[in-house]
Sequence to fold (486 residues):
Amino acid sequence: GQAVAHVAPRGAARIAQRQFTPRAKREERAQREALYREKEYARDTLNFTLRLAEAMFYYGADAMDVDSAIIAVSSAYGLDSVDVNITNQSVTINYTSDPDIYMESRISSRTMSADSRFTHTLVRVVRTSTENYEALASTYGLIHDITEGGMTLEDADLRLSEITNHPKPYPPLITWLANIGCATTLTAALGASWSTATAAAIVFIPVYLLIQWLNKIGMPTFFRMAASAGLLTFLAIWLGGDHSMIRRPGESISAPLVVAAGLIMFLPTSRLVGAVQDAINGFPVTAAGRFVSTGMSFLGLVIGIASAVNAISLFGGPILDIEQTRFDLPSPLTFSVFMLAATVTFAITLHTKLVKLGWLVLITCSALVTYHLYTYLVGVDSGRANTALAALIIGMLSTYVAYRLHAPQAVFSIPALTFLLPGLSFFRGMYLLTVETNVVWGIQSMISAVSIVIAMAAGVTLGNYLMQYLLQRFAVPRNVPAEAAE
Fold:
């Protein structure tokens, strides 16, 4: 074979194996290699943390929890100097290495220069979301396991991929039946007759199919809200006419009750509460973005209701009397029983696992007792205090259960707030503004509904803060023996 030409080593390479090899040169090379490894490790860690934050936002976590999770996970993997900036649709993470803290165990700080510092800035945009509380709870469980220690970055990354690729816990048929059951029980809880409750179940079958089809083709939320509210209102008014096929003798079908129950389901409750919570917690940009997206959803509902009323008048259908939008709620027992059923079915539509439904019922029962007891003691003129107090109980109990189960508070608080949602006030305000063009009374009803939402969100947030303080002050830290804690 041909002889291979060898290039004679030069410089430091020529004396690399001699006993008088320059020690400083070897240390500098080792330092550069260690610095390179540290940069790669930091970038891999930040990339994983950003993926985790994206998943949390996608599944409906609020800004405060995302911010806390990023800092906690980064710190668990050795990155302490992390700055986080969160907006409505994006997460930005900035990391600057600190030789005195992070690099000291790997590279001698005495030989570090200012040029050895490095910075990583990563951004991720989250434009879509989904309703999957089981996946959200799984991400919180992953964060708990990471912060408790013992999970490598590779294992955490693999587990996050399993969470994001795992199918939803309930098949579409179960979700469909839960939506129909929620619409029926909500209508009954508002004081509807059996005929009206049956009408709600019938109406929501095509409405749900329409929503699923619009989701499948990627229709924006504004058009989904307008189309679903329009179809719901059109069918509810049509079935509520004098010649309705499901109308029982001696009973009337209240179209406004059906629409009001549907509005409770359509209202973006998590975004409403999340926007107020973000504003209170010090995330104004995120709150502003959520308020804008929520406002567009409301606008879609308004346009849908107005279009349906105008369309049914063109077909010569029944006319909706605005006085029908004034209701007398049933007895507290009837209201509570049907609202509990509506809460459970609503939680199933959000893909909450059955093991958590028992805790949800307990939290909702406590809030219902508080709400009715306060109303009974103070009277019907209690303002929004009964709503705020019930929301406070929901916030405290949800935070405690979430702490014990390593789950997000929203899994329990959002469904538990169902019985407080002002569907009747929203519908009356929308109808007065769009159909009756009564601006004064319409705005008054809308302000009343918005005040209820603010009282709900503020009560839940305050309950969260109070329970967090109590847990930090009195609870024994988990995974720490009681004797050591004392």
